[in-house]
């Protein structure tokens, strides 16, 4: 007797999600406003590093402490850098910082987490790179030991030979 075989869902073509990986964007509606939250471009990312530096340092310290990550930890960490986060979110969503300031808790949290979904990997990469660089520097410093002192120069003069 023949068996009925379930149809298989066709596999996605290799590379079908390449554009999503390279340029993740999220179209969202926040407080009635349709937005595209986008990932920073290379040069834009470089330019915002001075603004994001304290946030990245906080992330690096959290990584080095080995503390578990969760929504509450990320939310608390972003809250410690609220002024910078407003500017960083505004750049990624192409909105005015004043508009972000006017959002209620639900809308503001949603926007912040969409921004983190899209740009969090950028910040984590920066923090991870810093942590790795610090480990390499520490290992280099630990590997440097002073060489033992050379033997002291001979101070005795050989006795003249009798002849």
Explain how this protein is built.
- Helix content is 58%, strand content 7%.
- It is mostly helical.
- It has a two-stranded antiparallel sheet with strand order 1-2.
- Strand 1 (25-30) and strand 2 form a beta hairpin.
- 13% of the residues are buried.
What is this structure, in a nutshell?
With 163 residues, the chain is mainly alpha-helical.
Reconstruct the topology from this structure:
Blueprint: H1 18-22, E1 25-30, E2 33-38, H2 42-65, H3 71-79, H4 82-93, H5 97-101, H6 105-143
Antiparallel strand pairs: 1-2
Helix pairs in contact: 2-6, 4-6
Order of helices and strands: HEEHHHHH
- Spatial shape: rod-shaped
Q: Reading side by side through the largest sheet, how are the strands ordered?
A: 1-2
Structural class: mainly alpha
Report the average pLDDT across residues. Answer: 83
Instruction: Please give the largest β-sheet.
Output: 2 strands, antiparallel
Q: Strand share of the residues?
A: 5-15%
End-to-end separation in angstroms reads 119 Å
Helix share of residues?
A: 55-70%
Number of helices: 6
Q: What does the oligomeric state look like here? A: single chain
Number of extended strands? 2
List segments where confidence is low: pLDDT < 50 over at least 5 consecutive residues: none
How big is the Rg?
29 Å
